[in-house]
Design goal:
alpha/beta; 419 residues; Rossmann fold; 11 strands; 9-stranded mixed sheet; binds S-adenosylmethionine; 2 domains
């Protein structure tokens, strides 16, 4: 059967997870062979198929479930890579850290990590999800907010969401007043760690109470989901956050460092050749623009999404033109070259990336990107097809159902590159 290796891998997961890589036996391997043919990946490197066992709830251990970040990867993947390619005390780097999954796993496994992103929401999520805070501190902060909260009408000093052309399109007028009131009290919190934790609960509330669908990464209007009063949702989020943050090891601040950086530009030389494992999980071609997916949250956190967008990889979200893939590949080739400079000789880059199917045309993103990588710097050690189960966004899941081919349309890979 070509060079496809079916694996049944027991990796040393965090003990709470209950999720493991599974054999792909349950999936029709003809579909997977067809996917490999379409993707042009045969013969490049040994192939494996990975999938993660466990419900979304199983995968929300530690702080992984405190914010619904669309397009986050399942924590067992980060855990598996870190456990396999590093030892305690080694350095891991994630230049597009998103919601900080790599950072959380590094903290749990006792690795040093440096995380970067261009999106201020991501940077805040990654910080909060890796910083221990005592439960009682957050509970009393939430209690204070509950007592002091009142909705705020429009006034000279009242806060308004930034960078949204038409806030009333996405929020009921009552909800805007409610979010304004909440934001105003949160701003009075003087302890920076506590304030950021409150802001994460607040950011997690924004989409839930808005008029946008809560189930899909992309923003669609669904007036049914709107909620006038944001306080109960916020308090529920705070409960979850207080419980999760108090379970974290206390070394977060020293082990996990988080900075803003555009990965298409060279990194500070002080990081060069310092990394044992680099995990790179970019936006996919034509799937999501993170500043757009998170525009509601960003706007309530004082960031115009239009200011973040130019710093992002050009992914052509919503454009739907296959020929634009060349620009995406240029950005990704630059990001990989910059990333490679950070890795020690013998170290690994684990690249998580996907092909795209646009109106029936398979866009061979991975194959073309591998063609741009300098062979004398990096060799392709293996390619694992990632077979989605529970953690993918709903629109991807619905595409899979439509095709009736489990895992065959997502075309998602973990590529192991060795320096
Ligand atoms: C697929 S997400 C990463 C998700 C992450 N692995 C997690 O589990 O949450 C991709 C991230 O890349 C970031 N990004 C996009 N362009 C970037 C760039 N030029 N430099 C750094 N980060 C970028 C986005 O803001 C987004 O947070």
């Amino acid at each position: 059967m070509s060079n496809l290796i079916e694996i049944e891998r027991k990796s040393n997961m965090h003990s709470d997870v209950g999720g493991n890589y599974l054999s792909i036996g349950a999936i029709n391997s003809e579909n997977i062979r067809a996917q490999i043919r379409e993707a042009g990946l045969k013969g490049i490197a040994p192939l494996e198929a990975w999938t993660v066992q466990g419900s979304n709830r199983d995968l929300a251990y530690s702080t992984h479930g405190v914010f619904r970040f669309f397009g986050k990867f399942p924590p067992p993947i980060a855990n598996h890579l870190i456990s396999n390619y590093t030892r305690k005390g080694d350095a891991v780097l994630d230049p597009m850290c998103g919601s900080g999954t790599t950072g959380v796993e590094c903290l749990l496994l006792g690795r040093n990590a440096v995380l970067f992103d261009v999106n201020p929401l991501s940077l805040m999520l990654a910080r909060v999800k890796t910083r221990h805070i005592e439960k009682s501190l957050l509970e009393s902060a939430a209690q204070y907010i509950k007592q002091a909260y009142k909705p705020l009408g429009r006034s000279k000093d009242a806060y308004d969401p930034i960078g949204l052309r038409n806030p009333e399109h996405w929020f009921l007028p009552e909800t805007i007043q409610s979010l304004r009131g909440l934001k105003k009290i949160i701003e009075t919190e003087m302890r920076p760690d506590v304030r950021e934790a409150l802001l994460v609960a607040f950011a997690g509330t924004v989409r839930r109470v808005s008029r946008a669908t809560t189930q899909q990464g992309r923003l669609f209007l669904d007036a049914e989901t709107a909620i006038n009063d944001a306080l109960p949702t916020f308090l529920k989020r705070m409960e979850k956050l207080s419980a999760a943050l108090s379970t974290l090891p206390k070394r977060g601040r020293s082990l996990i460092r988080i900075y803003k950086n555009d990965s298409r530009k060279p990194f500070d030389r002080k990081y060069h050749e310092s990394t044992n494992l680099l995990i790179l999980h970019p936006p996919y071609f034509n799937a999501y623009r993170y500043s757009s997916v998170n525009s509601l949250e960003l706007s309530w956190l004082d960031h115009a999404h239009g200011d973040v967008a130019p710093q992002e990889v050009r992914e052509f979200f919503k454009v739907g033109k296959p020929e634009k893939v060349e620009f995406y590949l240029q950005d990704m080739a630059a990001a990989i070259e910059n990333a490679a400079a950070l890795v020690r000789p013998g170290g690994v880059i684990a690249l998580m990336i996907g092909d795209t199917v646009l109106r029936g045309e398979h866009i061979c993103v991975l194959k073309n990107l591998l063609g741009k990588i300098k062979k004398e710097t990096l060799s392709v050690e293996k390619i694992a097809l990632r077979v989605p189960r529970y953690t993918e966004a709903t629109w991807v899941a619905s595409q899979r159902r439509k095709e009736g081919r489990l895992g065959a349309t997502l075309c998602d890979y973990v590529v192991i590159l060795r320096k």
